[in-house]
Design a protein that fits this description.
With 395 residues, the protein is an alpha/beta fold. It contains 13 helices and 20 strands. The chain has helices at 13-23, 49-52, 94-107, 154-157, 217-220, 224-233, 282-300, 308-317, 319-334, 336-345, 347-358, 363-369, 372-392, and strands at 2-3, 6-9, 29-32, 46-48, 65-67, 69-74, 77-83, 89-91, 111-113, 118-123, 129-133, 138-141, 143-146, 164-175, 187-192, 199-204, 208-216, 243-252, 260-261, 264-266. It binds flavin-adenine dinucleotide (FAD).
Length: 395
C-alpha cells in the first residue's frame, strides 16, 4: 500500500490541473487514469482563449488551428460569416492536449499512473481514503479529488448526487490530408438549432475536420448517428469517411448540489460543470481544478477541517456563469429565431459572444450588463423550459 497526501482520479484537464496545482503547493500527489496515455476522448477539442488563459504555460505546442471567426447557419435563416479579427478558440486534439497537461503535472512532481482503473474507494475511520485499482494496487491519501469525468465512479462511491445527463453529443473526424478547405480556415461552422437543445459543428484541425452534433439526450440521443450522417452529407461529404465516431454525455450541474465533503471534492465533468449553452466543458474543468487546489492544501496542512472553501470558490467563480448559461440556453431553444438573428446580425450580440469565449466577460457579467435581462432571465427561462418540455417531453 502506498501513501500520498492527495490522490486525483482521472487525468483529463480537470484532474491534471488539480494534481499539478496541489503538488506545486508542496504535497505528494498521485494522479490515476484508467486509460493508457496518450488516450483520446469524445470531444471537439476546442479550447477557448478564456480557457487557455487559465494555464500558467503556453499550449501552442498542441494547437492545430486558431479560430478567429464563425460561419453561423440555422434552419430558415441565411448563412452568415462573422469575424472577430482576434483568436477565439484554439483547436486541439484531446489525445495530445491531455498528454501535454499530464506532462506539466509530472514536472510539478505529480506521480502519474495510467492504465490504472479505480474499482473501489473506502473511507477509513481516521478520514483517509483507500483507493483500490483494478490491478489490485491500493493507495491511501487524506485528500481525494474525483476528476473521473461524465460517468465517474468517485461521486457514486462516496454518496454524491450524480449530475444530470441532460445532453449528449457525437463526433467524428474527416481526413483532409492535403489541407482543410479554404472556406473553413480560421473559422468554425456552427449550425444552430440543428437538433433540439443543441447544434452541429465543424472544427478545423491540422489534417482533418472534426464534425459533431449534440442536443438534449431524450430527443437527440436516439437520432444522433442519423443526424451526424445527414449533417456530414449536407456539406457534400460521405459519412462513411468519418473516422473514430464517438459519443458521450454532457453532465450538467443540478441546482444547489454539494460538491465537497470532508477530504473529498468533485471537479470538472464529474461535478457536472459543462456549459449548458455551448456544451463546452474544458474551461470549467480547468477552473475547478484550480479552485480546489488551495482548499485541498489548507485541508492537508490542517488549516481547515474540510475543503468547503472549494464549494465557495466555485459558487463565486464558476457557478454564476453556468446559471446564466442555463437561462440563456432555455430561452434560446424555446425562441431560437430572434437569438439566431441577433447572433448573425447584431454587432453587440456578436461582440458579447466573442467576449464570453475570449474571456473579457463571462455569461453572468454579460447578462448583468444588459440591465433588463438581468432581472427577467430567470423567470423567462422558467417559462421557456415549460414550453420546450411541453414540446419535447421532460428532460
Ligand atoms: C462530443 C463532445 C464534444 C465536446 N467538445 C468540446 C469542446 O470542443 N470544447 C470543450 O471545452 N468541451 C467539449 N466537450 C466537453 C469536454 O469534453 C468535457 O467537459 C471535458 O473533457 C471535461 O474534462 P474532465 O477533466 O472533467 O473529464 P474527462 O476529460 O472526461 O477526463 C476524465 C478522465 O477520467 C478517467 N477515468 C474515468 N473513470 C476512471 C476510473 N474509474 N479510474 C481512473 N480513471 C478514470 C478517464 O479515462 C478520463 O481520462 C465535448 C464533449 C463531448 C461529449
Amino acid at each position: 500500500m502506498t501513501e500520498y497526501e492527495a490522490i486525483v482520479i482521472g487525468a483529463g484537464p480537470a484532474g491534471s490541473t488539480a494534481a499539478r496545482e496541489i503538488a506545486s503547493r508542496g504535497h505528494s500527489v498521485l494522479l490515476l487514469d484508467r486509460a493508457s496515455f496518450p488516450r483520446d476522448k469524445p470531444c471537439g477539442g476546442g479550447v477557448t482563449v478564456r480557457c487557455a488563459a487559465l494555464f500558467p504555460f503556453d499550449i501552442t505546442h498542441v494547437v492545430e488551428h486558431v479560430v478567429t471567426g464563425a460561419i453561423l447557419s440555422a434552419p430558415n435563416a441565411p448563412v452568415v460569416t462573422r469575424e472577430a479579427h482576434a483568436p477565439l478558440t484554439y483547436m486541439t486534439q484531446r489525445r495530445r492536449l491531455d498528454a501535454f497537461l499530464v506532462e506539466r503535472a509530472q514536472e510539478a512532481g505529480v506521480e502519474f499512473r495510467d492504465a490504472h482503473a479505480v474499482r473501489a474507494i473506502t473511507e477509513r475511520a481516521d478520514g483517509a481514503f483507500e483507493v483500490r485499482a483494478a490491478n489490485g494496487d491500493t493507495h491511501t491519501a487524506r485528500a481525494l479529488i474525483g476528476a473521473d469525468g461524465a460517468n465517474g465512479v468517485v461521486g457514486t462511491f462516496l454518496g454524491f448526487e450524480h449530475p444530470a445527463d441532460a445532453a449528449v453529443a457525437l463526433e467524428g473526424n474527416l481526413r483532409f490530408p492535403d489541407g482543410i478547405p479554404q472556406w473553413l480556415h480560421g473559422r468554425v461552422a456552427l449550425s444552430l438549432g440543428l437538433m433540439p437543445g443543441g447544434y452541429g459543428w465543424l472544427f478545423p484541425k491540422g489534417d482533418h475536420i472534426n464534425v459533431g452534433v449534440g442536443g438534449w439526450k431524450h430527443v437527440a440521443g436516439p437520432r444522433l448517428r442519423a443526424a451526424l450522417d445527414a449533417y456530414t452529407r449536407s456539406y457534400g461529404w460521405n459519412p462513411d469517411d468519418l473516422d473514430a465516431v464517438r459519443g458521450h454525455n454532457l453532465p450538467m450541474l443540478r441546482a444547489g448540489v454539494v460538491l465537497t465533503a470532508r477530504g473529498v471534492a468533485l471537479i470538472g465533468d464529474a461535478a457536472g460543470l459543462v456549459d449548458p449553452l455551448s456544451g463546452e466543458g474544458i474551461t470549467a474543468a480547468v477552473a475547478s481544478g484550480l479552485a480546489v487546489s488551495s482548499p485541498a492544501s489548507d485541508y492537508l496542512r490542517g488549516v481547515t477541517p474540510d475543503m468547503r472553501g472549494y464549494q465557495l470558490a466555485l459558487e463565486r467563480e464558476v457557478i454564476p456563469d453556468l446559471v446564466a448559461s442555463r437561462g440563456l440556453m432555455e430561452v434560446f431553444h424555446a425562441y431560437p429565431a430572434p437569438f439566431v438573428w441577433a447572433a448573425q446580425h447584431s454587432g453587440r450580440v456578436w461582440r458579447a459572444m466573442c467576449g464570453a469565449i475570449s474571456g473579457g466577460k463571462g455569461y453572468d457579467a454579460i447578462v448583468q450588463s444588459t440591465g433588463p435581462l438581468a432581472h427577467t432571465l430567470a423567470p423567462l427561462a422558467k417559462v421557456a423550459r415549460r414550453l420546450t418540455v411541453a414540446k419535447y417531453g421532460p428532460r
